[in-house]
## 1
Amino acid sequence: MSRNMGGGRYSSGERSELADRVVRVNRVAKVVKGGRKFSFSALIVVGDMNGRVGAGIGKAREVTEAIRKGMEVAKRNMITVPMVGTTIPHEVRLKLGSARIMLKPAAPGTGVISGGAMRAVIESAGIKDILTKSHGTNNPINTVRATLAALQQLRTAQQVADLRSKEIEQIVGRRLANAYRRSDGAEPAAAAAAAAEVK
C-alpha cells in the first residue's frame, strides 16, 4: 500500500472504492527523564468521490500506524453529501469555533475553487464545481471539522419539499424544479447551472 505524504490521492487496500488523503502529519515530542519521546498524529480524509466523505485523527508512535488509525476513524464517521449535478444545492455559511467558512454552488466547468484542508474534503466527496472561502483559523483540524459540519447542513429542494409536505415547484419554482428533475436523469449540468444562476 503506497502513500504519498504530500497529500495526494491514493486507494486503501481494504476498500478499493475509497480514496484517502493525508491532510497533515504532526510530530509531538514529550520530554521525559531519559530524553524525548516522539509520537505522531495524522489527519486523514476518506471519500468515495460520489457523495460520501469522512475525516479522522490517528495517533501513534509511527507515522504509518497513525495514518492507519486515522483512516479507520474516518471510515466510521462518513457522512453523505447531497449534490445537484457536480455542485452543491445551495450556499451555506458556518461558524464552528474560530473557523468561519462559506460554501457556494458554481456553474459546470468552474472547478474546485478552494485551498488547503477544505479542498481535500470537497474533492474526496466528489464535488467538481464549488466556490469556498475560509476565515478565522489556519488550523486544518478545525477547518476540516467546519467543512464537514457545513456539508451536513445541505438539503436538496426535494428534501425540503418533503419536510414541508409540499411540491418541489412550491419551494423553488417551476423552472428550477424541472432542472432538478433532469439532474436525476441525463442532464445534471442543467440543474447545476440553474442552481448557480439562481444564487
Note: The longest strand covers residues 19-32.
## 2
Amino acid sequence: MKRPVLVTVIGIVMIVVGLMQVGVGILLVSQRNDATVLADANVTTSELTSVAIGLLVLGALSVLLAFWLLNGSRVARALIGLLELGQIAGGIYILVKLDSSHQASGIGQIIGGLIVLYFLVGTEKAKAYFAH
C-alpha cells in the first residue's frame, strides 16, 4: 500500500521540527549558567535546564516517531496521535490559564494538532473531498 503524501509531509515536518528542538535544547544547556540569559528570561538555572532537557527529549522522540511513521508503523501513528492530543490540551491550557499575549500560541497549537490528527486518522473519503 502506498503511503499517503500528507503522511510523508507530516513525517518530514516532524523530523525538521524535532531537529530544531534538539538544537534549541543544546543551545539552552550551553547557556544555563549565563547570568545575562537567566536574567533576560527571568528563570533559574534549574528551570532553564528542565526546559532544555524537555526539548532534547521531545525533539529526539519526534525524529524517532517520524522515521517510524515514514516506515509505515501503525504504532507510530497512534503515538503521534496521542502527542497531538497532548498538544491540543496544552493549547487549551494556554488559552485558559495564561494572559492574552499567549493566546495566539495556544490557538496555533490547537489548530496544528487538529490538522495533524485529521490527516493521520481521517477517512480516505473525507481526505479526498478536501483535497479537491
Note: Residues 5-30 form the longest helix (26 residues).
## 3
Amino acid sequence: MPKLLEVKGLNAWYGESHILHGMDFEVNEGEVVTLLGRNGAGKTTTLKSVLGMVGRRAGSVKFDGREVIRMSSDQIARLGIAFCPEERGIFSSLNVKENLLLPPRVRDGGLSTEQIYELFPNLRERLASQGTKLSGGEQQMLAIGRILRTGARLLMLDEPTEGLAPVIVQHIGRTITRLKQQGFTILLVEQNFRFAQTVADRYYVVEHGRVIDMIPNAALEASMDKVHVYLGV
C-alpha cells in the first residue's frame, strides 16, 4: 500500500516545553493505525503537530508525498487531513444540523449528510437538538460525522471512546471498520486497548515523545507481555 502520511524526526514545542523528540512513523493508505502509550507520552501532541496546531515544530511531515511542515493548519486541512479532538468541539449554541454543516468541504469525496445519518441514526433523530442537549455518545458521533463531510482522506481521531458506554464504543468500532472499507485512512489515539485491538492494523508505541516500537496486529498476541509493560497495565 502507498504511504499516505510519513513523519520523520518530528519535534514539537508548547512554548518552552519540548514535547516531541523525533517522532518517526508512517500510515499507509487505507490503514487504521493506533498510537499507544501512557498519559503524557505525546500522542495527542503528535496529532496536533501533523496539522501544525502547536507552537513550534521541526522535522518532516509528508502527506501523500508532499512536505507540509512549513504549511499553516488551514493549508494542511485543505489537502485532506481532518482532526477530531478528544474534547469533541461541539458548539453548544448550534443544533446538530448546524454543527454538522459548519465545516467547509475541502475536497471532493466527503460523505453526504444522508450517508452520515446512515452511519449514525441517532443524529437524524436529534437534528434540532442543541449541542448541550446531546449525550456524550451523540456528541462523539456528531464530531466524527462532521469531519466526514469535509472530503478528508486521513481522519485523526483522539480518544474517540473516552467516557462512552460499551454499546456506544461498539458502535464507534463498527463505524471505523466501515470507514476503512470505504477507503478512509485513520490515525487513532486510544487508551482503550481492547477497543484498539478490534480496529487497528498496526500499533506504534509512544514514550517520552518518540516511537519506541511498532507492532503489527498479526504479532499482537505474541507481544502482549511487552504491550502491558509499555502501557503499565
Note: The chain has a mean pLDDT of 94.
